[in-house]
Design a protein that fits this description.
Keywords: Oxidoreductase. The protein is α+β, with helices and mostly antiparallel strands. It contains eleven helices and eight strands. The strands form two sheets. A four-stranded mixed beta sheet has the order 1-4-5-8, covered by helices on one side. A four-stranded antiparallel beta sheet has the order 2-3-7-6, with no helix packed on it.
């Protein structure tokens, strides 16, 4: 499998992860190294200057990066989501995001400015206002949360509701902003339990402008099978799953290493010989063994241009929930096997325990995924 992440680069990233977590600082040094390695263009086709990796291959790269530094992987993931959307469209004959792919290959960093407090509609609605500028562009006014790469993005994908052009036909506007365009403020409010280096700060939009050539879609609120929406949803869920799978892979490896060197005073033997510990390790491994075939299967189907229509929402939301819940289980078992030292901040397993919790907050959350699957099987709830 093709790789763009050399082992020595991952070693450098791993060596800085605890420092960024402890000091609550952005992973600027990691980002510079990843840019220099061409990793920001991993999903970009070779014809547009990138590495040309498939979605399945990048999932495995993201898992390796997450095993070294989960917060770095999570934030870089939001960049890869956008290149994933660009690739999704490009491979289906739509060149509207080819400029984004070329920008990424040149080292531009993309951020994901979609999340809003209390917006459980996610892609289907928005609290942000999109005000037309009269020339085909828009200014955006609203509050975005969990904006990963806040200190580092140079391009920010956003959405907002245009209810003024035609009040009887409101539209969700999807567009891109540039960092030097102004009209926004990034709050210094990222002081979280885990995933600290991602610096996913709140972004206040107050007139941030996207010109007409950076407005990609104007879609009716509500469910949509537009390829742009499908590209966002599938890329987000699959790539996110790979990050949490990587955290679980690393936690299991650490647990195996730890129980092999810890010795019981009661028996004088390594904990790896204790039947209860062996059961826990096996439980974690059995759960984790089911994760990668699912990721590979879904990512491979997207790479193969498989058309599942609305079923893609069920398949990828379900994947995200299963992987993130499994990752929490694996890390929990790893902690239980490894002793009280993991309760200290200096412990890598302790840090993974905090980082893995973030998985429950990303869309699709547990409730949304269950609603999607129920509707797929039972139809909509009757009015």
């Amino acid at each position: 499998m093709t790789s763009t992440l050399p082992d020595d680069l991952l070693a450098s990233v791993r060596g800085r992860a605890a420092i960024h977590d402890r000091e609550n600082t952005f992973f600027a040094d990691d980002l510079a190294d990843l840019r220099d390695a061409g990793y920001l263009g991993a999903l970009v086709p070779r014809s547009l200057g990138g590495a040309g990796l498939t979605l399945r291959e990048v999932c495995h790269e993201q898992a390796r990066l997450a095993g070294a530094a989960p917060a770095t992987a999570l934030a870089v993931n939001m960049h890869h989501v956008w290149t994933g959307v660009g690739r999704y469209l490009h491979e289906r004959g739509d060149d509207s995001l080819d400029w984004l792919l070329a920008d990424a290959a040149r080292g531009e960093v993309f951020g994901f400015g979609y999340s809003e407090a209390g917006n459980d509609l996610v892609l289907l609605g928005s609290r942000t206002e999109a005000r037309p500028d009269g020339e085909g562009g828009y200014t955006f006014h609203g509050r975005k949360i969990f904006t990963s790469n806040s200190p580092g993005w140079t391009r920010l994908g956003v959405m907002g509701l245009d209810s003024t052009t035609d009040p009887d036909d409101p539209r969700i506007v999807h567009a891109f902003l540039t960092r030097d365009g102004g009209g926004f403020e990034i709050l210094d409010d990222w002081d979280t339990l885990g995933m600290r280096a991602s610096q996913s700060c709140t972004t206040l939009l107050d007139g941030a402008h996207a010109p007409a050539d950076r407005v990609l879609r104007r879609l009716p609120p509500g469910p949509s099978l537009d390829p742009y929406v499908l590209g966002i949803f599938t890329s987000f869920e699959v790539l996110l799953s790979s990050v949490y799978a990587g955290i679980a892979d690393r936690a299991l490896a650490l647990a195996v290493e730890t129980v092999g060197r810890r010795t019981s005073m009661k028996t004088g033997r390594a904990y790896s010989q204790d039947p209860d510990i062996r059961w826990r390790i096996a439980t974690a491994a059995l759960a984790q063994d089911g994760v990668w075939p699912q990721i590979d299967g879904v990512a491979g189907a997207i790479d193969a241009l498989e058309d599942r229509g609305a079923r893609w929402f069920r398949d990828t939301a379900g994947l995200k929930v299963r992987v993130t819940e499994t990752a929490r289980q694996v890390v929990d078992e790893a902690i239980r096997c490894s002793g009280g030292s993991t309760y200290f901040n200096r412990s890598e397993l302790g840090r993974l325990y905090r980082d893995v919790l973030a998985g429950i907050f990303h869309p699709s959350d547990d409730e949304s995924a269950h609603s999607t699957v129920a509707q797929s099987l039972l139809g909509p709830v009757e009015a």
